[in-house]
Amino acid sequence: MPDSSSKLRVAVLFGGRSAEHEVSLLSARNVAAALTEAGHDLTLVAIGRSGRWYAAEEIATPAESEGAAEGQLAVVPGAGRRALRLATSGAGLGPLDVVFPILHGPFGEDGTMQGLLRSLDLPFVGPSVLGSAAAMDKDVAKRLLNAAGLPTAPGVTLRRNAPQDFATLCQALKPPFFVKPANLGSSVGVTRAGTEAEFRDALTLAFRYDPKVLVEEEVKGREIECAVLGDGEMAASLPGEILPAAAHGFYTYDAKYTDPEGAGLRAPVELPAETTARVRETAVAAARALDCEGMARVDFFLKDDGALLINEINTIPGFTAISMYPKLWDASGLPPAPLVDRLLAHALARHEREQRLEILHEV
Description:
Layout: E1 9-15, H1 21-37, E2 41-47, E3 53-56, E4 73-75, E5 84-86, E6 98-101, H2 112-119, H3 129-136, H4 138-147, E7 155-159, H5 166-172, E8 177-181, E9 191-193, H6 196-207, E10 212-217, E11 222-230, E12 235-236, E13 240-244, H7 253-257, E14 263-266, H8 273-289, E15 294-302, E16 308-314, H9 324-331, H10 336-355
Parallel strand pairs: 1-2, 1-6
Antiparallel strand pairs: 2-3, 4-5, 7-10, 8-9, 8-10, 11-12, 11-13, 11-15, 13-14, 15-16
Helix pairs in contact: 1-10
């Protein structure tokens, strides 16, 4: 089996069908740069907004048109490392050692891509099927974290066809609320709502993205993030802090990706030693509770009284120029090129362990 210290053929998957398509492109460019710096060969695979796969020369949204097949890829089950082939000719892209999916949101971060890659017998970076699916669904993640004794913000889950009464909700939670799609990230579809009219508008927006919506009490506190890496012996980075600009109110999509003044970042952030240790320990505990081996970014609220609440866990965290996952590891002494090497090494080691499991018929 190849190891990450040798030159690997890495397929970088980017784009995708989710509302976070553009963020994926930003992340993929930085991942590709780090992989190149680490000395690996890249195979770029663009996934269009339609869901079609294309062999790509650059990291950009593929130009799709009805009936166009140029560069389109077919996935061949049972072909192992040669599973990706050109749809028109059947020519393979060559043997792949490992896949680096940098797909944010549904159809990439929610277990669907991980299930496909595992079925194809291709090693891949990041958590496997269960951890990806559990972390992507904020409702399920909250229940699992709470069952593990890990605190989260008070919240209620609403479904599209169920009653959504503002007055009843106010008996369970204290407004203002944050209303968010259960299965999405990058603050897409998230709204702060303090009145019934705002709540109705927030629900309408959130239900555009998911049939299940999470409503949580607003938490007054600092936004702290911690990066996790590995499996058996998970490592946690030094914590960092997000400082959203007052003009945005909270860490919105625009604050993250379109407004250069949208937020300040501290990586790392100075906290009392006890608090730093607690953040790192809780980040690892949260990743274990959701079976998020490989990589994850755990987001917290740190309240004035010292209480630490888990906001959410991202299993394919952003790798953009302003993303905290690579910034936190860099600040912790692990720059981008060695970081991607570590992620590749985990993917290959996990795949090797899976090959030893007695779950397959002998051929």
